């Protein structure tokens, strides 16, 4: 079944809209302040539906009215483009001059953005073929979203509200019934049930068509601005909500005809973001929910931008318009089957998280024991994997805007995330946050016990992504199973996509450092 509009289910019976209007009016009359979130969501839905209806019934006539303006625009496109570029550069220079005078640390973060872009360009597969439109538009969208979310009250309130809707407290109702008091003492019974619940909710949203509609709208915005193909844009937009092997399922029928650059962008989007179900587990650690959510959203346009810089398009894409791109709904017959199927589907993910944590924590302890033994041979018995990472990635952490004395600790987190996985890195970050909240001394016996709030936020953005070596097998196996003819292409490009996805997360952190 093809589902591009969730409102079809809502509008089949005329009384449903009338009932909702009555409910909406009652909620606003009784307490408008309490109903603000409902007003915003309803307004967005009305605007979107109005646009769809206007496009469907009056789209052709509107196009005819604007044809003279379109011809004038195309004939003067060259100088309009230069005026726009000069205006944007001028505003950026003014912003840097005015804003960084109040916050000098932001200039370092801006330098970090420039450094990572230059690095990716130097390592690009086809430097002479780079199209700068997706690069600048992607970074511009990401920067604007960062300013809106972090600097403005509406953006901060909106994402803070969305972060609280992960329903951690509601999950306890189910997990406490099954596991009892064990949920307060054992990680598996405390954090992993949120994955089950979120997977079930996502399955219901897919059944209703809401998730497909949202993904299509986000991909449409990125497609018309960045100029990327509908297929790769749709997959990257899907990565905001689902995992690196689930998002390509949205474009499964089209994968076999996609170019190498498009396949690379699909993989980069998977490495640069995290799945919504896993996000819930991180929030249960104590990681800031609004930062995690905004990091995943901001990473989508940046992933397309950096992907097109790392592996530019050199082939002719077969997908020029989104009209022939359809997103399939699930096969469930009703909403209860969707909820049950989503919960059942999460069993493999929960087991995968648990066994990976066991394995990687054990491996990390073994590696540290080996390094201490080898280091002891030459008079350095305290050397560990974390210590090596702290020196190797310290310049990276510093260029993100982390203060020098905290950059070694953040570098450990980056190394842990890249070489092991993001779960271990976020677990360590949550431990540092708990130490700060509990009032521990900043440094004990020469070891830093906590980070500043700004460094915590930047680190949250830097760690938000599946870009680690343990994910390579998942991506190769997942995409090869979905589209066997592209197995060779996936294998050839996966390491480049891993590097690109890592750079996306680091650029994301730099943008957060500029905005915070």
From TrEMBL:
Q: Which domain of life is it from?
A: Eukaryota
Compartments annotated for it: namely:
Cell membrane
- Membrane topology label: Multi-pass membrane protein
- Where is it predominantly found? membrane
**What keywords is this UniProt entry annotated with?**
Cell membrane, Membrane, Transmembrane, Transmembrane helix, Transport
Write out the transmembrane intervals. Answer: 20-47, 79-98, 104-123, 135-152, 186-208, 265-287, 343-363, 383-402, 458-482
Record keywords: Oxidoreductase included?
no
Query: Which parts of the sequence belong to the Nucleoside transporter/FeoB GTPase Gate domain?
Result: 189-286
What residue stretches are annotated with the Concentrative nucleoside transporter N-terminal domain?
112-182
Where the record annotates domain Concentrative nucleoside transporter C-terminal, the positions are 292-513
Q: Does the keyword Transport apply?
A: yes
Q: Which GO terms describe its molecular function?
A: nucleoside:sodium symporter activity
State a GO cellular component annotated for this protein. Answer: plasma membrane
Q: Which family does it belong to?
A: Belongs to the concentrative nucleoside transporter (CNT) (TC 2.A.41) family.
Protein name according to UniProt: Sodium/nucleoside cotransporter
Source organism (scientific name) = Myripristis murdjan
What taxonomic ancestry is recorded?
A: Eukaryota, Metazoa, Chordata, Craniata, Vertebrata
């Amino acid at each position: 079944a093809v589902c591009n509009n969730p409102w079809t289910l809502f509008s089949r019976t005329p009384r449903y809209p009338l009932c909702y209007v009555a409910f909406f009016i009652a909620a606003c009359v009784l307490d408008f302040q309490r109903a603000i979130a409902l007003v915003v969501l309803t307004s967005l839905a009305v605007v979107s539906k109005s646009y769809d209806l206007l496009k469907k019934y009056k789209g052709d006539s509107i196009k005819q009215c604007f044809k003279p303006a379109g011809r004038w625009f195309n004939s003067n496109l060259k100088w309009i483009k230069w005026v726009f570029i000069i205006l944007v550069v001028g505003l950026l220079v003014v912003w840097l001059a005015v804003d960084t005078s109040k916050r000098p640390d932001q200039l370092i973060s801006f330098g970090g953005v420039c450094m990572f872009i230059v690095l990716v360009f130097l390592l690009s597969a086809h430097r002479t073929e780079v199209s700068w439109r997706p690069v600048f538009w992607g970074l511009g969208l990401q920067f604007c979203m960062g300013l809106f979310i972090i600097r403005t009250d509406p953006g901060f309130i909106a994402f803070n509200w969305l972060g609280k809707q992960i329903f951690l407290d509601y999950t306890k109702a189910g997990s406490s019934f099954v596991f009892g008091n064990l949920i307060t003492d054992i990680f598996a019974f405390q954090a992993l049930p949120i994955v089950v619940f979120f997977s079930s909710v996502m399955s219901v949203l897919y059944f209703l068509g809401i998730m497909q509609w949202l993904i299509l709208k986000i991909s449409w915005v990125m497609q018309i601005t960045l100029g990327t193909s509908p297929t790769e844009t749709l997959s990257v937009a899907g990565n905001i909500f689902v995992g690196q092997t689930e998002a390509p399922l949205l474009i499964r029928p089209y994968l076999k005809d996609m170019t190498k650059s498009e396949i690379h962008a699909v993989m980069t989007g998977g490495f640069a973001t995290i799945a919504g179900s896993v996000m819930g587990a991180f929030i249960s650690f104590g990681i800031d929910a609004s930062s995690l959510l905004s990091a995943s959203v901001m990473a989508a346009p940046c992933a397309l931008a950096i992907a097109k810089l790392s592996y530019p398009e050199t082939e002719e894409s077969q997908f020029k318009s989104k009209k022939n791109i359809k997103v399939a709904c699930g096969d469930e017959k009703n909403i209860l089957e969707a909820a049950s199927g989503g919960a059942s589907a999460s069993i493999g993910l929960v087991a995968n998280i648990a066994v990976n944590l066991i394995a990687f924590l054990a491996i990390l302890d073994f590696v540290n024991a080996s390094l201490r033994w080898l280091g002891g041979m030459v008079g350095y018995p305290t050397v560990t994997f974390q210590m090596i990472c702290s020196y190797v990635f310290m310049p990276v952490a510093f260029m993100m805007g982390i203060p020098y004395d905290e950059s070694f600790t953040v570098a450990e987190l980056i190394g842990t995330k890249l070489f092991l996985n993001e779960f271990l890195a976020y677990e360590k970050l949550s431990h540092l946050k708990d130490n700060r909240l509990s009032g521990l001394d900043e440094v004990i016996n020469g070891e830093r016990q906590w980070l500043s709030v700004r460094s915590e936020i930047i680190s949250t953005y830097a760690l938000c992504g599946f870009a680690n070596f343990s994910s390579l097998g998942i991506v190769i196996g997942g995409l090869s199973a979905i589209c066997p003819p592209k197995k060779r292409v996936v294998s050839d490009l996966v390491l480049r996509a891993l590097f690109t996805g890592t750079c996306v997360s680091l650029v994301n952190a730099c943008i957060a450092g500029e905005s915070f």
